[in-house]
Structure formats: structure tokens, C-alpha cells
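FORM 7B: Structural annotation worksheet

SECTION A. Query
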Amino acid sequence: MANDILELFQSFRTILCLCPYCNQIQRLSDINPRYGGRIKKTWLDIYESRVKALEKKVEAFEEKAEELRQSATEKGRKQVPDILRRSMSIEFMNLSYNPYDIKALMHPVDFIIFDGLHSAENVKEIIFLSKKISNNGLNKIRESIRDAIRNGSYNWQVARVDLEGKITYHQK
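SECTION B. Predicted structure
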């Protein structure tokens, strides 16, 4: 039966027709007949129209999702300064540093400020910022940090972690 159908379609190549609109001779297998009346939809027509409708909805959703993502990102970025200021002590709220330059450490120093990091991409100064407290132990640690910086007792090291978890240090 499959061979019969295949032979039928092959025979369509040998049948020639004259197009009533353009007066061109064409093979029956190449023509695209048109019907002026209403054609009854098949299950395939319905399926294809539903697929197209779904594709349009997916495309519209993806566009909307991208807009929502961008809007949420912008909204979040605008909120960062206020969130950071609210998380800081009242004494620190009125500082003139870019909020994106302030990083929370919380212990032993409350914050570290990389002044100029986000505005000029060139750090002008690094500031350790902590609220004065009455904890003698923590105050001694902070004083030792201050003394180490004043005495130049620090260095810069780069640590690299490979895929196996091995850490190597590169001194600069």
C-alpha cells in the first residue's frame, strides 16, 4: 500500500497542467491549488494554530519577563543606598561616601569603604569604619589593626583556588 501511494505521488510529476491565472504549464506535484470557498479545518490545522498562538504568548511573556527583570534590577539598585544606610549606625548615615563603595565586615571592623571604587573605578582611599563601643576585647583588636596599618605591617597576597580545592598563594 505504501508503494501504491508513493507511485501515485510520483505520477503527479508526469501530469502537466495549465494554470488558468498565469497560463504557465506546471507539474501537478508543484501546483498549489486554491479554493475560493470555506475549507473545513482538520485536526492538524487546529493544532498548528494553537502552536502559533502559544508561541506568540511565550514570546510576549519573554519580552515582559525581560522588562520586569530590568525594572526589578533598577528598583533594587535605587534601594541599595537606603538599605545600606538603614543597616548602618545613625552616626554613619550622613557620610558622603558612595553607598556602593561601603562593604560590611561586621567583625572586628563594622565596615570597610573603598572610596572611589564605583564612581571613578580608582580607589583613592580605604577606610575602616566602626562605631566606638565599650567592649575592651574588641577595642584592643581594633587598636592592633590600626597599629599594624600605621606600622606598615601588612602585605597583599592573591590566593588561587583550583578545581580540586587546592589553595596557592601568590605574593605581589
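SECTION C. Observations
Residues 43-87 form the longest helix (45 residues). Strands lie at 16-18, 25-27, 102-104, 111-115, 125-129, 157-161, 167-171.

SECTION D. Sign-off
Analyst initials: ____
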